[in-house]
What does this fold into?
Amino acid sequence: MPKISKIWARQILDSRGIPTVEAACQLDTGEVAVASVPSGTSTGTHEAIELRDNDEQKYLGKGVSKAVGNVNDVLGPGVWGLDVTDQERVDSRLIELDGTPNKSKYGANAILSVSIAATKAASLATKQPLYLWINTLAKRVGIKGEVKIPTPIFVLIEGGLHGAGNLDFQEFHLIPATSKSFTDSLRSAVEIFLILGRDLERRGAIHSFGEEGGYAPNLFTNADALEVLYEAVKQTPYQIGRDVFFGLDVAASVFYKNGEYTIRDKSAPLTDDGLLEYYKYINSQYHLAELEDPFHEDAWESWKKLAESMKDQLVVVGDDLLTTNMERVQKGISEGSCNAILVKPNQVGTISETLKVVKVSRDANWKVITSHRGGETNDWFIADFAVGIGSEYAKFGAPNRGERVVKYNRLLSIEAELLQQKAQ
Ligand code: PGA
Ligand code: ZN
It folds into this structure.
């Protein structure tokens, strides 16, 4: 029974240059595992609370020294001596110590850093690859299925809060066919991404890269972003609708104000019904495979309406709507709001709670998409997590920027490992 002998934390920087928490977990057997937590830019209102120092003199208020202190002084000592392979016990102790429903006392960032460090330490102690250990944890909560390399959802163009460009929709996705190997999927995405960059340059439309490594251009409309993507794919041997598909994370809460949605595609703001009609039009033009956060995060009625009319054609994904939160997921299931969940461990704060949300989503026959955040670190934990829970899809950004490719590269290596095992 490998026991936790020490936990300590430090403040490090995420990919945006904003402080985040890194924690280390040492076992009585000597192993040490280190984990760091991501942070959202377009965070949902219903997410667990990320504790920031709010001291304007330091990092413009964005420091996390209080969260780090909470790990060092309370959360770490609170789990010392526990069996690290009993993730449920470790996490329930963390939840108990915090005692608030949204982890606002010690911070979901502090709590998750310990939870993930423990998961990683347990994989070392049990001498299993991380994805296999996570699969063991998944089975413990009743998630069926073996490890599986997810189909990647690549973020090739960015707008909204993620880029300096002028698009309202947050992400424009390229999704390779589910039948492709990960290695081939990654190759197709890179080739299309490079051609896309060349095309945007020719149009004089490159503004910069967005937070997740995708291009953040200035274009006339949001639909134009799909058009440039379409044009780029047409220059490759890949066929839209056979080899690759398109998707959107609209992140509609960001441009929703006073009951209306303002987007550059339309001269006047749209109602929920007007926006639904526009999605139907976009879908008729580009045959989307997936649509995330089409309405604001509390527009339950509109979500239901959209799911009823479009869920046979595409995957309707709840991110800001659900925030990996059990109560909201249950409401989404009973109301038929979507048919897929975006899973982000830091929206809820522990690995055990994340696994339970995955289990409930699976039982409802929803697709599971494991996701990174706008602010990431070079920790590739989420790649192993996606494989371990057997998620259908994984969204880790563009095939660009270290903190994104580290996760895709990890999937490459897991795929090679699994192929090798199969051949033996
Ligand atoms: P976020 O974006 O991490 O900034 O919330 C990712 C997403 O919305 O999927
Ligand atoms: Zn999203």
Remarks:
- Residues 182-203 form the longest helix (22 residues).
